[in-house]
Design brief:
Shape: globular
Strand content: 15-25%
Number of helices: 2
Structural class: alpha+beta
Radius of gyration: 13 Å
Number of strands: 4
Strand order of the largest sheet: 1-4-2-3
Largest sheet: 4 strands, mixed
Length: 97
């Protein structure tokens, strides 16, 4: 792994966190990576285990080669204090090589 891009939530002026859609995160990674001379590379997608297949597919749909890293245990416990418990609430990370 040579580069890691962490897409953090946007915090509104009132302190509320904006919802990060999977497609929105993938779009942001494309936007950031297009500025790199070597381009996007291959994305290792890390997400909650009940969402990771969809996350990989969404990443593919955005034009990236993407996989869930072999041997990495995806998280499975949600933070109940988040705005959308059970529907995200973690930083999405795309690792590209």
């Amino acid at each position: 792994m040579t580069r890691v891009t962490s897409i953090e939530p946007v915090v509104a002026p009132d302190g509320a966190l904006a919802y990060l859609s999977t497609d929105g995160v993938a779009a942001r990674v494309v936007e950031i990576s297009e500025k790199l001379p070597e381009g996007i590379g291959t994305a290792g997608v890390i997400g909650f285990r009940d969402h990771v297949k969809r996350c990989v597919q969404t990443t593919h749909d955005r034009g990236m080669t993407a996989y869930a890293p072999a041997g990495f245990e995806m998280p499975g416990t949600y933070d109940p204090s988040r705005a959308r418990p059970g529907r995200g609430g973690a930083t999405s990370v795309w690792c590209t090589t």
